[in-house]
Amino acid sequence: MSSFTTVLALLVMGVVVLVLVRGLYNMMTGGDANRSNKLMQLRILLQAAAVILIMLTLWITGGGR
């Protein structure tokens, strides 16, 4: 179970990076401000999911004790 949550957390963190880069690129090229805002909101939700998965993994594995 802990390896599953570890892989899932890493996957979500990768998606966070992709959404962040996409949102920054959209802002730098002068794209739609509404789209940039939605991407940044999605990034916040994905970051929260990543933190929850990391904490769940630490809880399952005993926090490295």
Helices and strands, with pairings:
Layout: H1 2-28, H2 33-61
Helix pairs in contact: 1-2
Describe the structure.
This protein has 65 residues and is mostly helical. Helices cover 86% and strands 0% of the residues. It has helices at 2-28, 33-61. Helix 1 runs antiparallel to helix 2. The longest helix is centred in the last third of the chain and has 29 residues, at 33-61. It is elongated. 11% of the residues are buried. The model has no long low-confidence stretch (mean pLDDT 90).
Report the total helices: 2
Helix content: over 70%
Instruction: Quote the distance from N terminus to C terminus.
Output: 17 Å
Main sheet, how many strands, which sense, barrel? none
> Proportion of β residues?
under 5%
Poorly predicted segments: none
Shape: elongated
SSE run: HH
Structural class: mainly alpha
Number of strands: 0
Quote the average pLDDT: 90
State Rg.
15 Å
Short description:
With 65 residues, the chain is an all-alpha fold. Helices cover 86% and strands 0% of the residues.
List keywords for this structure.
65 residues, mainly alpha
